[in-house]
């Protein structure tokens, strides 16, 4: 194993890891805000990928330019999922946990079924993308341009999220609601509004990830499920509810996955991730940055 | 003939139940602008339920709550805060892992202009100077008394017309209790009306203008602070004389 291979693995792992962080952060944000796991997270990613694909076909505009539109569209999907389903599930008098799980799981099954029906199970890919298929090479290290762009977008998104959380009133309202949703009314905050915005943000962020993934990944009705699995691992690793833990854990997952492919055949590349997950669960169950 | 102005807070025949169990029943109470009004009563008498219902965190089964003549009964809690009633509940409900500064800043969430946020901030620092020294500390690391001061300050940041306090002396060192009662006097002097629930009857009646005594969800005694202190039943039940 040469030094160059090692650097190559670290570079590819880092790029994919930043994208994994972006895929996972919305899941963590929503969980942190209200202790609800969005089991439709992967399906929201899939919706964004199809939306990106469809819009590219219709408009001919490059998917990277359509990304802000995906954020807005998925923000609406997330907000509606809260207002239309989750809000009512949270009022359950008995078995609250189960009701919440089935509510978002049901949403996932519904979205996936609709996708099977409307889009067929065929694999699609976005045609004629500016960034598609290009690589840059730096001192013998090859970096795929779509992943490079995705990693840059992820860094920008986390930067924006950090500003939002630390510098704005909305960020403070999100933090306060996360601390004690029953107490925010004392300062005049409507917790339902914060929850709606939280779901919008969580889904909007996965929408951004979907726009990026649509550049270099095949699109099919089950595409969300495989990424969602990685996202659950990432969130558990970073600490449930920790937004920036998701970033760190995403990078960790990307690096471990890349390192695994070095040793094992590609079809087994997930083994490293789940091994890492088991290790964390056993050694530090609350994740890297979580507080129980 | 001059029409008398309505009281700032007017509660009529208020009844609240928890899953069918009546906790307060037919309570009527007035608080005039500029008053300090005390509500006393034994454990389980319904004092907290009364404040929770006025604050909108419990829905009344029947009865009305009016602020300045406007009916606010059954309205959601955040709208009642916006209407001008700030409420410090029994367990304070600070945002424990947020800093003192952030807790205060959240208190002025409803205001966008800088003056609207800074003027009440100066006011609470004058009231409780020690908060100013602990701005970057997490709320959960404050002492019980300091947490109560922060909870009252956060409530004042909403610039309320009526401040409702639920047993502010509970679980607090005696020295700080005096400080908090002194603060209540200063808060009223600065123009905010106060409705305070307390078990320390003689101490709260020393600063209140009027009072109500609750028993099993009903008002059993009401009157001026002095009348209540002189009332034989009260002397027997609460003051042990
Ligand atoms: N969340 C609740 N669910 C069911 N019953 C409740 C609830 N909160 C209060 N109660 C009941 O309502 C009655 C009045 O309670 P409340 O807390 O208003 O009394 P309190 O006067 O504030 O008492 P304390 O001095 O102990 O604070 C009590 O019988 C209590 O058991
Ligand atoms: Mg009480």
User: What is the count of structural domains of chain A?
Assistant: 1
Strand and helix order of chain A: HHHHEEHHHHHH
Weakly predicted, low-confidence segments of chain A: none
CATH class categorisation of chain B: Alpha Beta
* SS class of chain A: mainly alpha
The average pLDDT value of chain B, as a whole number, equals: 93
| Structural class by helix and strand composition of chain B | alpha/beta
Helix fraction of chain A? over 70%
Characterize the overall form of chain A: globular
**Which CATH top level class of chain A fits?**
Mainly Alpha
Q: What summary fits the major beta sheet of chain A?
A: 2 strands, antiparallel
Largest interchain contact: A-B, 17 and 29 residues
Cα-to-Cα separation, first versus last residue of chain A:
41 Å
Unreliably modeled segments of chain B: none
Describe the 3D structure:
The complex is a heterodimer of chains A (292) and B (241). Chain A is mostly helical. Helix content of chain A is 73%, strand content 3%. Chain A has one domain: ABC transporter involved in vitamin B12 uptake, BtuC, CATH 1.10.3470. Chain A has a two-stranded antiparallel sheet with strand order 1-2. In chain A, strand 1 and strand 2 (141-144) form a beta hairpin. Chain A starts with a helix and ends in a 9-residue tail after the last helix. Chain B has helices spanning 47-55, 77-83, 100-107, 114-127, 129-132, 144-157, 174-189, 201-207, 225-230, 232-237, and strands spanning 9-18, 21-31, 36-41, 62-67, 70-71, 85-88, 162-166, 193-197, 210-215, 218-224. In chain B, helix 3 (100-107) packs parallel to helix 6. Chain A binds chain B through residues 169, 172-173, 175-176, 179-180, 182-191, and chain B through 55-57, 76-78, 80-82, 86-89, 93-98, 102, 105-107, 109-110, 154-155, 157-158. Residues 47-48, 90, 166 of chain B line the site of magnesium ion. Residues 47-48, 90, 166 of chain B line the site of magnesium ion (MG).
């Amino acid at each position: 194993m040469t030094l160059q291979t090692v650097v190559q693995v670290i570079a590819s792992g880092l790029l994919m890891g930043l994208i994994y962080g972006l895929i996972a952060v919305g899941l963590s944000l929503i969980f942190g805000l209200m202790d609800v796991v969005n089991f439709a997270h992967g399906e929201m990613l899939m919706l964004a990928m199809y939306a990106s694909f469809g819009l590219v076909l219709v408009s001919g505009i490059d998917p990277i330019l359509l990304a802000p539109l995906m954020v807005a569209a998925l923000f609406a999907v997330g907000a509606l999922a809260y207002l239309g389903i989750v809000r009512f599930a949270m009022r359950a008098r008995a078995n609250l946990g189960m009701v919440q799980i089935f509510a978002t799981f049901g949403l996932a099954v519904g979205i996936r079924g609709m996708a099977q029906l409307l889009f067929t199970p065929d694999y699609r890919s976005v045609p004629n993308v500016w960034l598609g298929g290009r690589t840059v090479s730096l001192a013998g290290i090859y970096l795929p341009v779509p992943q490079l762009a995705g990693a840059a977008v992820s860094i920008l998104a986390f930067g924006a999220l950090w500003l939002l959380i630390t510098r704005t009133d909305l960020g403070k309202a999100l933090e306060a609601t996360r601390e004690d949703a029953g107490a925010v009314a004392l300062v005049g905050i409507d917790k339902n509004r914060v929850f709606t915005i939280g779901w919008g943000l969580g889904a909007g962020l996965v929408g951004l990830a979907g726009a990026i993934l649509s550049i270099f990944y095949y699109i099919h009705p089950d595409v969300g499920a495989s990424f969602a699995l990685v996202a659950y691992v990432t969130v558990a690793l970073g600490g449930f509810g920790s937004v920036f833990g998701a970033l760190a854990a995403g990078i960790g997952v990307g690096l471990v996955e890349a390192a695994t492919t070095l040793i094992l055949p590609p079809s087994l590349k997930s083994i490293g991730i789940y091994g890492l997950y088991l290790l964390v669960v056993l050694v530090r169950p609350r994740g890297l940055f979580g507080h129980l | 003939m001059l029409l008398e102005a309505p009281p700032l807070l007017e509660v009529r025949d208020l009844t609240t139940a928890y899953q069918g169990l009546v906790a307060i029943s037919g309570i009527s109470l007035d608080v005039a602008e500029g008053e300090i009004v005390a509500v006393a009563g034994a454990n389980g008498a319904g004092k907290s339920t009364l404040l929770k219902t006025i604050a909108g965190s419990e829905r009344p089964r029947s009865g009305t709550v009016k602020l300045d003549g406007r009916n606010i009964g059954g309205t959601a809690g955040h709208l009642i805060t916006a209407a001008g009633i700030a409420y410090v509940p029994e367990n304070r409900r600070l945002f424990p892992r947020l800093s003192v500064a952030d807790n205060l800043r959240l208190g002025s969430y409803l205001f966008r202009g800088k003056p609207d946020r800074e003027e009440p901030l100066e006011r609470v620092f004058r009231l409780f100077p020690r908060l100013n020294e602990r701005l970057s500390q997490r709320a959960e690391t404050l002492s019980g008394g300091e947490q109560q001061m922060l909870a009252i300050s956060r409530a004042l940041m909403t610039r309320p017309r009526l401040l409702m306090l639920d047993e502010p002396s509970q679980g607090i060192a005696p020295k700080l209790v005096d400080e908090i009662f002194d603060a209540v006097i200063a808060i009223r002097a600065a123009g905010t009306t106060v409705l305070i629930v307390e078990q320390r009857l003689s101490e709260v009646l020393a600063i209140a203008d009027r009072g109500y005594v609750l028993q099993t969800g009903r008002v059993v005694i009401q009157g001026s602070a002095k009348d209540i202190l002189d009332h034989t039943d009260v002397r027997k039940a609460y003051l042990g004389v």
